[in-house]
Amino acid sequence: MRTVLPAIAIAATLAVSAFAASWSGRLIDAACYQAQKKADSCDATGNSTSFALFVSGKVYNLDAAGNNKAAAAVKNRADRADPAKPHSNMVNATVTGTESGGTISVETIDVN
Predict the structure, then answer these.
(1) What is the pTM of this model?
(2) How many angstroms separate the CA atoms of 60 and 62, rounded?
(3) In the chain, where are the structural domains located?
């Protein structure tokens, strides 16, 4: 029985990760989007605390862990490392995770 339980746990973990998907789109400030209902003026910034991903006209909110990962990624963007490089207000991101009810449970996030 002791050898069966770890095997079941590993299989369950692999099954959940098999359902992970990837989305690429524009990272926006979720609070701004909730207030304005349009993504055009809601670019994510270093001061944003809640994030959403705007993909082909659909908005996906990020879970709490995703918000933390997105905040760190936005603050550490590559274009902020070089002050001579022009700063872009728009943040494009690729998010990997699972979606349920319009919210993505984020596994990884990559901003560019």
Answers:
(1) 0.77
(2) 7
(3) 20-111
